[in-house]
Design a protein that fits this description.
This protein is α/β, with parallel strands linked by helices. The protein contains 7 helices and 6 strands. The chain starts with a helix and ends with a helix. Zinc ion binds next to loops.
Length: about 220
């Protein structure tokens, strides 16, 4: 008689323990899933903005070209494995700290800061420089810079990777693999007009986006 009472209780306790353990496993797994990112997150930073014009020529300001490129990149933002986050999509003036905060808040995998410059010395209308820190510990940034450079070259655009002795403040502060793209445009009014027309900007943005896709595939 006693036995028949004890056994169901034991069964109940065992059942409760199993239930408890499985709940803990399920709960911890679901909270783990929330933390794990499935997308490769890239912060795209259009350099300067607002009252900060960047470099200027008689015909255009750097901040406007940087913004055009990033806006064009936004229209290409279709890859389900990649999440692009933009520091600015308009004329906002954002501080370096605010930009760095966005990198941290979004748990970014990569920061790409886009800048442009005007030069009278270029033998071709335009080229790219990809700048990374010279710091030898920054292995990922260098790897990503090379992948990006290869993709840009595939679009028949001239580019090379350069190492910075002292990286920009944003690159220093970001705490994640970081690159700076500097589009260089030959400084004649005709060259600037040609290189900032929508067709050229589309090609530039496409080359950068295919580079981001190649980096995501390889990371
Ligand atoms: Zn700049």
């Amino acid at each position: 008689m006693n036995k028949s009472i004890v056994i169901p209780q034991m069964k109940n306790i065992r059942y409760l323990i199993i239930l408890l353990v499985s709940s803990v496993i399920v709960l911890s797994f679901s909270s783990y899933k929330k933390v794990v990112k499935t997308k490769f997150t890239v912060i795209l930073d259009a350099g300067h903005g607002g009252n900060d014009f960047g470099s200027k020529s008689d015909w255009i300001s750097e901040k406007d070209i940087n913004l055009k490129i990033v806006q064009e990149l936004r229209s290409l933002d279709k890859n389900p494995n990649i999440q692009l986050v933009y520091t600015r999509l308009n004329e906002q003036d954002i501080s370096i700290s605010e930009r760095a905060e966005m990198v941290a808040m979004n748990h970014a995998d990569l920061l790409i800061s886009i800048h442009s410059n005007f030069s009278e010395q270029l033998s071709i209308p335009q080229d790219f420089k990809i700048l990374v820190s010279k710091d030898s510990s920054d292995v990922k940034s260098k790897k990503y810079a090379n992948i990006l450079a290869e993709s840009i070259k595939k679009m028949s655009l001239q580019t090379k990777v350069n190492f910075m002795e002292s990286p920009t403040l944003l690159l220093k502060k970001s705490g994640v693999p970081s690159l700076m793209i500097e589009l260089r445009i030959r400084e004649t009014e005709a060259d600037i007009k040609t290189q900032t027309n929508s067709k050229a900007i589309k090609k530039i943005a496409k080359s950068i986006y295919s580079g981001i896709e190649a980096i995501q595939n390889d990371h």
